[in-house]
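In this section we walk through a basic example: taking a raw amino acid sequence and producing a predicted 3D structure, encoded as discrete structure tokens. The instruction is simple. Fold the sequence below.
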Amino acid sequence: MSIYMMILIVATVFSAFSQVLLKQSARREHASWIREYLNWRVITAYGISFAVLFANTYAYTGVDMRFGPVIDTFTYVFVMVFSFVLLKEKFTRGQLIGNLIIISGVLIYTL
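The resulting token sequence is shown next.
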């Protein structure tokens, strides 16, 4: 596996983590409307998203374009796992089936 492919995979994990940070922030009560947007979770999440943008741009210089969107679909799987582990959310049967379809599709596409 190339370093570029690894960058795409790691960027996908970080992207999912940033979405969970945004979800954590949305669940909290904030003292004012400005604090909804200017708190450490939101700022960190957008900082991660910005870094992921650059990482993906760099990774596409060494990875065939057809693999990028396939790897990016794993964001949904990682968000579900992080939500379960970090936010203690239960996932539904539909979410589980949907994520299994995503994983199956990726495996079929890459094989």
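Looking at the output, two observations stand out. The chain has a mean pLDDT of 92. The two ends are 15 Å apart (CA to CA). In the next section we compare this with other chains.
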